[in-house]
Amino acid sequence: MTGCTDTPVLKERGQHEVFCGLTGIIWLHRKMQDAFFLVVGSRTCAHLLQSAAGVMIFAEPRFGTAILEEGDLAGLKDANEELDREVARLLERRPDIRQLFLVGSCPSEVIKLDLARAAERLSAEHAPNVRVLNYSGSGIETTFTQGEDACLAAMVPGLAATDAETLLLVGALPDVVEDQARDLLAAMGITSVQVLPGRRAAADPTVGPNTRYALLQPFLGDTAAALDARGATRIPAPFPFGEEGTTLWLRAVADAFGVDDATFARATDAPRARARKAVAAVAGTLRDKRVFFLPDSQLELPLARFLTRECGMQAVEVGTPFLHAQIMADELALLAEGPRIAEGQDVEKQLDRVRADRPDLTVCGLGLANPLEREGLTTKWAIELVFTPVHFYEQAGDLASLFARPIRRKALLAAGRGDAPVAVAAE
Ligand code: SF4
């Protein structure tokens, strides 16, 4: 099966229209319960975090912004001293913090600060209670899911070494979904399972030459490279979206750990059947509808594979901010020939193609969705796919529903206006 393996990739280099990597803090801070994310940035960065993570207003947050003003440009020494003071104040107030991430951003005054050296200096000062790490969430360097990649990649060099044979799951999933994955693996007899990132610093995984790792998210290329550099081996697989993706992902892990067919079937038959049934209940709304992915989350190729193969949709164009040839090899092979595959962004050109194609559903960032809706196009916000639990069997039906909902809503509105007779499949 070669699918889109040999499809020429349209490389786009132009204006971007996506959130920056700071956005990843919104889900990372929920996952890593004794970590704190200190954004070294401007008021814009603070506003982004506050509005994107508005829900945290009632909780003691595990992220904040050290705002650098124009005046801080006067002297980097002052800026470093100010940062050290902020960190000392924070750690004194919050003795529960075990990992502190200094997160860089794009203002020029931040770029001039050497946050890697600051992290080293502060780590030495606050060891052993707190490990201070740094990564960039700058919009110049990262799109929104790359923030997680940068964060996890920054953690890898500091992970303790091991020679033990273990499976490492890589990616920050909601705890309930991570537990489902562990249960499925345990049912196959794979119990030596670690996760990056751990829920707490003390639970961060160990890594070494006998570590085999499976990516849970497709946007973790730098983290994969960092794990490879520690001697770990990636288990190549499609991503666990939908019944088929989950089964192929589990099968690849099972093969790597010598699980026999009967055990695999015992562990997966029942949840597979549930997932198929849940997807089938929604697929009627999606069948034969045309979907266009603008580049946003790096989830586009696996989702296009799920929507075309399990829900009967037709992909018109699948755009992705980055196409990691090795990590995406299995996905490209599964995706049937037909759609244009695009890497990078040139937003005006892409919008022209959306207008020319008039797809039934356009998956795009928040900033593009409203204008497209005004032009009569139906859209799905890509960011919801990262905030909503969508991995593994039990979420397969919910994943299909996320795409079916805007199509059903559009059909109901059209029916209400009497624009056209519409058949809406029951969910
Ligand atoms: S990191 Fe850059 S793009 Fe992101 S909010 Fe701050 S200034 Fe804006």
UniProtKB/TrEMBL annotation:
<keyword id="KW-0149">Chlorophyll biosynthesis</keyword>
<dbReference type="InterPro" id="IPR000510">
    <property type="entry name" value="Nase/OxRdtase_comp1"/>
</dbReference>
<feature type="binding site">
    <location>
        <position position="106"/>
    </location>
    <ligand>
        <name>[4Fe-4S] cluster</name>
    </ligand>
</feature>
<feature type="coiled-coil region">
    <location>
        <begin position="73"/>
        <end position="100"/>
    </location>
</feature>
<keyword id="KW-0547">Nucleotide-binding</keyword>
<keyword id="KW-0067">ATP-binding</keyword>
<keyword id="KW-0077">Bacteriochlorophyll biosynthesis</keyword>
<keyword id="KW-0560">Oxidoreductase</keyword>
<comment type="similarity">
    <text>Belongs to the BchN/ChlN family.</text>
</comment>
<feature type="domain" description="Nitrogenase/oxidoreductase component 1">
    <location>
        <begin position="20"/>
        <end position="400"/>
    </location>
</feature>
<keyword id="KW-0411">Iron-sulfur</keyword>
<keyword id="KW-0479">Metal-binding</keyword>
<dbReference type="InterPro" id="IPR050293">
    <property type="entry name" value="LIPOR_BchN/ChlN"/>
</dbReference>
<comment type="function">
    <text>Component of the dark-operative protochlorophyllide reductase (DPOR) that uses Mg-ATP and reduced ferredoxin to reduce ring D of protochlorophyllide (Pchlide) to form chlorophyllide a (Chlide). This reaction is light-independent. The NB-protein (BchN-BchB) is the catalytic component of the complex.</text>
</comment>
<keyword id="KW-0408">Iron</keyword>
<protein>
    <recommendedName>
        <fullName>Light-independent protochlorophyllide reductase subunit N</fullName>
        <ecNumber>1.3.7.7</ecNumber>
    </recommendedName>
</protein>
<feature type="binding site">
    <location>
        <position position="20"/>
    </location>
    <ligand>
        <name>[4Fe-4S] cluster</name>
    </ligand>
</feature>
<keyword id="KW-0602">Photosynthesis</keyword>
<keyword id="KW-0004">4Fe-4S</keyword>
<dbReference type="GO" id="GO:0016491">
    <property type="term" value="F:oxidoreductase activity"/>
</dbReference>
<feature type="binding site">
    <location>
        <position position="45"/>
    </location>
    <ligand>
        <name>[4Fe-4S] cluster</name>
    </ligand>
</feature>
<dbReference type="InterPro" id="IPR005970">
    <property type="entry name" value="Protochl_reductN"/>
</dbReference>
<comment type="subunit">
    <text>Protochlorophyllide reductase is composed of three subunits; BchL, BchN and BchB. Forms a heterotetramer of two BchB and two BchN subunits.</text>
</comment>
<dbReference type="Pfam" id="PF00148">
    <property type="entry name" value="Oxidored_nitro"/>
</dbReference>
<comment type="pathway">
    <text>Porphyrin-containing compound metabolism; bacteriochlorophyll biosynthesis (light-independent).</text>
</comment>
<keyword id="KW-0175">Coiled coil</keyword>
